[in-house]
Amino acid sequence: MNSIKLMVEEHGYILRMLKVVRKACFGVMKGAEINYDDFNDMIDFIRKYADSHHHGKEEKFLFKEMQNHLGRIGTNLITHGMLVEHDYGRMYIGELSDALLSVKNGNEESKLDVIANAIGYTNLLSKHIAKEDAAVYSYGEKNLPQDILDDINKKSEVFEIEAEKEGTQKHYIDMLVKLESKYL
User: Fold this and answer.
1) How far apart are CA 152 and CA 57, in angstroms?
2) Nearest Cα to 128, choosing from 92, 95, 81?
3) Most buried of 31, 87, 126, 163, CB within 10 angstroms?
């Protein structure tokens, strides 16, 4: 298994979901009622597939090794760049979840917060993914020793097998396809 290639493929699914989120927000902006079930599915995909599954592999395996083996540049790139952006993404999704609850409880003005946080997240993550695909992953691939890359690949493979047993990948890709058919 090439874990970096897999993470790039996962970015494709995440970017597709970002398009769904954007279209759902556009509908809200144009006056459509919020479909709470759909937004909850989008949040579930983001929290469990994009964050726990995808970012989980990055943070536990690749980024950890980049911090441990690539000196100050690796540490700064990961600690002050990628991990900060992961945390900002989590903040946006937490705020989105709170805003949805506020609208559901009758606060129409919170629709602004739904749109702002959802779009903030989509913009952040689109740029974040572009940086990882264009620079971060290739820097790690070029500069980490082969035995470390092999270890990352082995750990990622075990992680993927466990997730597959739980049906994680199929569940979230099916969810994505369902939401795409509705919003795109």
Assistant:
1) 9
2) 81
3) 163
Distance, CA of 112 to CA of 97 (rounded, Å): 13
Architecture of domain 3-183: Up-down Bundle (1.20)
Query: Tokens in use for 64?
Result: 């950890």
> Is the pTM higher than 0.90?
yes
User: Long-range contacts: 72-81, Cβ < 8 Å, 24+?
Assistant: 74/139, 74/140, 74/143, 77/136, 77/139, 81/131, 81/136
- Taking only the tens place, the pLDDT of each residue in 31-72 is 999 999 999 999 999 999 999 999 999 999 999 999 999 999
Could you tell me if 115 and 144 are in contact, meaning their C-beta atoms sit under 8 angstroms apart?
no
Q: Is the dihedral of CA 2, 51, 132, 42 positive or negative?
A: positive
Identify the sign of the CA torsion 11, 12, 15, 21.
negative
